[in-house]
Design a protein that fits this description.
The protein is α/β, with parallel strands linked by helices. A hairpin with a 2-residue loop joins strand 3 (84-88) and strand 4 (91-95). It has one domain: Rossmann fold (3-Layer(aba) Sandwich). A nine-stranded mixed beta sheet has the order 3-4-5-2-1-6-7-9-8, with helices on both faces. The mean pLDDT is 93. The protein contains seven helices and nine strands.
Amino acid sequence: MELSFWQSRWRNEKTGWHMQQVFSLLKKYWHHLNLKTDATVLVPLCGKSLDLDWLAGQGHHVVGVEISEIALKEVMERQPYSFHRSAKGSFTRYHSSSMELWCGDIFKLRQRWLPPVNAVYDKSALIALPPETRSRYAHKIQSLLQPQGKIFINTFEYPQDEMGGPPFAVFEDELVRLYSDRFEITRLHSHSIFEDLSNFQRRGLKSYLNEKIYTLTPEL
């Protein structure tokens, strides 16, 4: 998807993907990454997710990346501390003691600009991207991670021919293709959410919709 598509969605307040609460499966399964409390966690395409606040509340240093300044301003307004603004490359960076928010195109982000990234929390980044962009995205994410960095990822599976994305269907075999050269892929959770998302049925989905959680840990 073009960046202008997402910026338009934010300007017009068409952000139906935003959850009004912390993602329950994040709270349930995050501990499987076995991170240190002060680990740095990268959240690509973070929007204004409340998950950012939860991760910071665990003691992590949170690095959110988002194209929409509207979304990031809402994140900052929720925080009890002030942010400082600076510029780096084509990005605007807002930073505090526990969180930094980068406004810009994630494909232009550089590892050397960031603190060492210990983990990536991918709630809705990979599934927001069309198939032709996902390989490039996976490569970029891996380039931002430390060698022993880990990934927590949420995916949807459904017949792509029944409904156009986003969110797009991403099956386990695609995760293997994108990440197995470097990571061991472990599925932690799978359940049907077909009945929960009636708006997807209105968009044409009629067979099934499964949500899955994976952890990706470095191969030994």
